[in-house]
Amino acid sequence: MDTTRDLLIALARRHAFADLGALAPVTEVAEVCEFGHRLLTLDAEDFAAEAKAVPAELRRRARACHMPQTPREQPRGALESLRPAYGLLLEVIAVRWHRRELSPMIAAVHIASEYLPLLAFEPHLGHAGDPTRWPEGLSAAGSRFGVIGDRECDHTKSEQSATNRTLRVATEPNEGWRAYFDRQHSQVAGALAVCVAACRNPCTAMDWIAPEPRTDLQLRARTALTFAETPLVRLRHAAPVGHGFGVPSPEEVLDAWQRSRTALDKNPIGAAALKDDGFPLPGLPSLFSAIAGAPIEPATLLNGVSTHVVSLLERL
After folding, report:
1. Which residue ranges make up each domain of the chain?
2. Alpha carbon of residue 267 to chain centroid
3. Which domain of life is it from (predicted)?
């Protein structure tokens, strides 16, 4: 490196926003790096935080991935659609892979697996699982959705508790709303998939979806449940993130993904994982797209932040 600026530009191009922010020569660069670091660490609570030094277009795209912090917050961000958030997840997974930060990468894969059923439900709900807009059919006569202690329901006790709360959390104080999203919303996602794709004693909870589209949703939701049990996602439990041991190697990650692709290749939706779409984990964007029933491609948010930081540095 010829100059300190060259070093800073190299950090920006590697998306090393935390390191660059600590070394930033001017406040404007530090603010943009803080914004980029929030994206890279998937701090969805703060994607909508004010960041005047960041171009408006990047802020707008980040807000589309933001999780509302109150029942009435507008716009609804990731509760309106999860597709932008999954684009960001894919971009984060790719960046972490190229930087060989495999524990955070597997953590991002794990997050994707938890909410994947909501991506499947989005075309039918008209939103991405917004508790303020659940269809009345979930609570229709004969529905066991959200009924605690019903032994005929295939939901676990924690899923019954989560589904019960999701039907009333919109009336809770803001603190209760945030606590619900911290602890229970991902369980609701899984519970919905069980309802439509894995319940041994179906009730009326899914009758609000017509039979033909429900059959399609059943396949996409079942594939989402399968993905959550694949060797790739199980790496998250085998290698505790943050404990400093058991971090998988690139070879172990690729092997786990290849075994996961084989496990998913049981139907036309899961078979999308076999596509060579140029992603570091080949077929992952294609799989998410098939489950969503809509194109999901890696975002360019992190690259946009990197490019903007480089332009700021080059002007110094």
Report:
1. 4-124+224-314, 136-207
2. 23
3. Bacteria
Helix axes 250-264, 231-238, angle to 10 degrees: 140
Tell me: pLDDT of 1 over 50: no
pLDDT at 154 over 90: yes
Predicted TM-score (pTM) of the model is 0.95
**Residue 22 Cα to chain centre, angstroms:** 28
Structure tokens at 64: 């589309």
Give one DSSP letter per residue of 191-230, joined into a string: HHHHHHHT-SS--STTTTS-HHHHHHHHHHHHHHHHHHTS
What DSSP designation does 182 have? H
The reported pLDDT for the residue numbered 245 is 55
Q: Tell me whether residue 71 is exposed, middle or buried, using C-beta atoms within 10 angstroms of its C-beta: 0 to 12, 13 to 18, 19 or more.
A: middle
Question: Exposed (0-12), middle (13-18) or buried (19+): which is 176, by Cβ within 10 Å?
Answer: middle
DSSP states along 268-313: TTGGGGG---S-SSTTHHHHHHHHHTS------HHHHHHHHHHHHH
Quote the CA–CA distance of 117 and 165 in Å, as a whole number. Answer: 18
Query: Given this model, what pLDDT does residue 47 score?
Result: 77
